[in-house]
Write a structure and sequence with these properties.
The chain has no helices and eleven strands. It is an all-beta fold. Strands 2, 4, 5, 6, 9, 10 and 11 form a seven-stranded mixed sheet that branches. Strands 1-3-8-7 form a four-stranded antiparallel sheet, with no helix packed on it. The radius of gyration is 13 Å and the shape is globular.
Length: about 110
């Protein structure tokens, strides 16, 4: 059974930084794609960033140049470094991993507020 466990969410002031981590576990699970989505209240879930095992990346337009995704393929972990955070970045952030089918974590709350 595949499990994704996120950590690192919390409250941060505008302009601050935060790092999210996600660990994927499951017998024989080696995801091709790992990444992050987010969902703010009343809005659809949207792509934040994704990364393939080959290192290819894709970012949402609103986070380009502020967020950086990285991963440790050997450990099945993915990270999201978030800098210059804005109040509009407030959302529940979900880890996502896909080999043949996709899996979701339970989400971690990120709140950007003074």
């Amino acid at each position: 059974q595949v499990q994704l466990v996120e950590s690192g969410g919390g409250l941060v002031q505008p302009g601050g930084s935060l790092t999210l981590s996600c660990a994927a576990s499951g017998s024989g699970f080696s995801p091709y794609l790992m990444g992050w989505y987010r969902q703010a209240p009343g809005k659809q879930r949207e792509l934040v960033a994704a990364m393939s095992t080959a290192g290819g990346t894709n970012y949402g337009d609103s986070v380009k140049d502020r967020f950086t995704i990285s991963r440790d393929n050997a450990k099945n972990m993915v990270y999201l470094q978030m800098n210059s955070l804005k109040p509009e970045d407030t959302a529940v952030y979900y880890c996502y991993a896909r080999k043949i089918v996709g899996y979701w974590g339970q989400g971690t709350q990120v709140t950007v507020s003074s």
